From TrEMBL, chain A:
Keyword match Transmembrane: yes
Residue span, ABC transmembrane type-1 domain: 154-343
UniProt membrane topology term: Multi-pass membrane protein
Record carries keyword Transcription: no
Highest taxon, organism lineage: Bacteria
Family: Belongs to the binding-protein-dependent transport system permease family. HisMQ subfamily.
Gene Ontology CC: one annotated term: ATP-binding cassette (ABC) transporter complex
Annotated localization: Cell inner membrane; Cell membrane
Protein's name in the database: Amino acid ABC transporter permease
Predominant cellular place of this UniProt entry's protein: membrane
Species per Swiss-Prot/TrEMBL record: Marinobacter lutaoensis
GO BP: amino acid transport
Length: 361, 265
């Protein structure tokens, strides 16, 4: 090959050079660097001391937590409760299968070269909820029924968040389309629905679902508390979702609608094939934002007596046998939420990158 | 606007207009308002099968509005529009059946940016005409070859130049095998060197006997391919006639003024 191929200039500096240029270029920069370094050391070292080096990880009971550090032994011993709630031990394999399927659906999404990963993702959106519907409550195919009042912990958190996320997206899409419809009745209904649900705090929705709804329902038509909460959360979340998606619909230029119409595509094809794919792609960050918010809002089910992972932890940190394990408990909860929310966020970035076709019209 | 020399001239493209067959487009006493604003006033037009019509006129005269009424992207409030025997009314099925037979090319291309060139071309044949995907792709490749960009089939519109995008847009419309093609200023968003490549495609299309209605300021194109030139101003058809007569001795003062401006420019 000819020698005329030009490489872009390399702007990376050697580490030593970089340090000298950025951290120690003048006497006051040096001073600042040293001061910040000292602050970091004095604050980070104790944190790690507490988290890891001085922490107790295993043992038989509260008596073994003697070190200055965290008592992870507490989490360790209560892990079963934090993950499954009161779900019977003998049936927990059903939940484990669901965890495995969840991982199977979404872990491949982070590996670019994974063969057929789109199918795994599609399974996650369709097959997975179906499996959950059969496996977790049981009562089918000889599976022992497990009443939803026994569900709890991380598993309950995931059930609520997953149902909320999966169900609110399609409902949100329909509401958003409805709000932009040319038919006044449909538009009016969608506006009322969205504005009413969006204006109500989730706590109120949950209270209404668990306390007030049974008062209005006819005798004998009382369905489970969890189901009521799920419906409430889904509808509430759909209202938010609808507005996010409407933002995307509005950002699509009129020319796209016109080109699709001019080709003879009817309303649903126009929306499904041309407008929505573009609009949804545009608002992925907004959608993910609402998903993450919902994921954390699931903790509110605590107030209607459902024990999600936060509720499960909270109910045990006050156990007199263990002293001062509240911090450990809450750090554990924070970590659980962080893992999933960070996962959702990374996944969405992945998706955005994959869907980028290099042009905005 | 600049006139573009193309390889073809008027003598090479014999009129394909069929005089015996019934008219493919009939517009009778059509009016349209935008709110209080009377955009189109009493338009009457008959287009024969295979006829090629160029519509010109000053900005804001209602040219776009008029051709967009023909596939009901805009609705008219009075009068009749009959396209290939189907009258345009509120009936969605009739509108869709007209749109299947009428292709449209826009000033700003309006390709679907999330689909590749080939997918853009196959979308409507597959979902509207229910053509099997394989067959649709074959047809699409034929048309992409005809507009001379088969090598771009797997790119996204965002990766193409304006001229290439407009040629894809023409191919996309042709893939539906329409009976009529509408063009709304297909070259006015393009750089001069790209205008010619698009006009050449349109001239070739005109030679194939397609019924064409074309809003354009490319007077060279009008002289080369048009059977009839229509001049619109203030929402009315002011004058119409074969290009020779239209350009050499326009009757109406408004036409004369317009032509003076556009030709000396
Ligand atoms: N959606 C609309 N609402 C109100 N008025 C409109 C609308 N669209 C167009 N008009 C007006 O209708 C008139 C005709 O517009 P039209 O786009 O048909 O003109 P045109 O002849 O195509 O002009 P140009 O050469 O600039 O494209 C203009 O005065 C315009 O301002
Ligand atoms: Mg126009």
């Amino acid at each position: 090959m000819g020698g005329s191929v030009m490489k872009p200039p390399v702007s990376r500096l050697a580490p030593v050079q970089w340090i000298r240029q950025n951290l120690f270029s003048t006497w006051y920069n040096t001073l600042l660097t040293l001061a910040v370094g000292w602050l970091l050391v004095t604050s980070v070292v104790p944190v790690f001391d507490w988290l890891i080096f001085g922490a107790t990880f295993s043992g038989d009971g509260p008596g073994d937590c003697v070190g200055k550090g965290a008592c992870w032994l507490f989490i360790n011993q209560r892990l079963n409760f934090f993950i499954y709630g009161f779900y019977p031990d003998a049936e927990q394999w059903r939940v484990d299968i669901m965890f495995a399927l969840l991982a199977l659906s979404f872990v491949p999404q982070f590996i670019d070269r994974f063969p057929g990963r789109t199918w795994f993702g599609l399974f996650g959106l369709t097959g997975l909820p179906l499996c959950g519907y059969i496996l977790i409550p049981g009562g089918w195919f000889g599976l022992e029924p497990v009443d939803s009042s026994k569900w709890g912990g991380l598993m309950l958190t995931l059930v609520i968040a997953y149902v909320g996320i999966i169900a609110s997206l399609p409902i949100g899409v329909l509401l958003a389309l409805g709000r932009r419809s040319e038919m006044p009745i449909i538009r009016g209904l969608c506006i009322v629905f969205i504005e009413v649900w969006r204006a109500v705090p989730l706590i109120t929705v949950l209270f209404m679902a668990s306390v007030m709804l049974p008062l209005f329902l006819p005798e004998g038509m009382n369905f489970e508390k969890l189901l009521r909460a799920l419906i409430g959360i889904t509808l509430w979340q759909s209202a938010y979702m609808a507005e996010v998606i409407r933002g995307g619909l509005q950002a699509i230029p009129r020319g796209q609608y016109e080109a699709a119409s001019a080709l003879g595509l009817g309303y649903w094809r126009r929306m499904g094939l041309v407008i929505l794919p573009q609009a949804l792609k545009l608002v992925i960050p907004g959608i993910v934002n609402t998903f993450i918010a919902l994921f954390k809002d699931t903790t509110l089910v605590l107030i209607i007596g459902l024990f999600d992972v936060l509720g499960a932890v909270q109910s045990t940190v006050t156990d007199p046998a263990w002293q001062n394990v509240a911090t450990e408990g809450y750090v554990f909860v924070a970590f659980c939420f962080w893992v999933f929310c960070f996962g959702i966020s990374r996944y969405s970035q992945n998706l955005e990158r994959k869907l980028d076709t290099g042009h905005k019209t | 606007m600049a006139e573009h020399n193309s390889a073809t001239n008027a003598a090479d493209i014999p009129s394909a207009a069929q005089h015996d067959a019934p008219d493919i487009i009939q517009v009778e006493g059509m009016h349209k308002w935008y709110g209080e604003f009377h955009v189109l006033r009493d338009l009457n037009l008959s287009v024969r099968r295979g006829e090629r019509i160029v519509i010109c006129g000053p900005s804001g005269s209602g040219k776009s509005t008029f051709i967009r009424c023909i596939n009901r992207l805009e609705e008219h409030q009075q009068g009749k529009i009959i396209v290939d025997g189907v009258e345009l009314t509120d009936d969605v099925r009739q509108i869709d059946s007209v749109r299947r037979e009428v292709g449209m090319v826009f000033q700003h291309f309006n390709l679907f940016p999330h689909l590749t060139v080939l997918e853009n071309c196959c979308l409507a044949p597959v979902w509207v005409r229910k053509v099997p995907r394989k067959e649709a792709e074959q047809t699409a490749m034929e048309y992409l070859e005809r507009v001379k960009i088969p090598d771009q089939a797997h790119k996204y519109p965002g990766q193409l130049s304006g001229g290439q995008q407009q040629r894809v847009a023409i191919a996309r419309a042709l893939c539906m095998k329409p009976k009529i093609m509408l063009f709304d200023e297909p070259t006015s968003a393009l750089d001069p060197e790209m205008i010619k490549e698009v006009l050449d495609v349109m001239i070739e299309l005109a030679g194939s006997g397609m019924t064409m209605l074309c809003v354009t300021h490319e007077m060279g194109f009008a002289k080369t391919v048009a059977d009839r030139v229509i001049f619109m101003d203030g929402g009315e058809i002011v004058e119409q006639g074969p290009p020779k007569a239209f350009f050499s001795n326009p009757r109406e003062p408004r036409t004369q003024k317009f032509l003076e401006q556009i030709l000396q420019h």
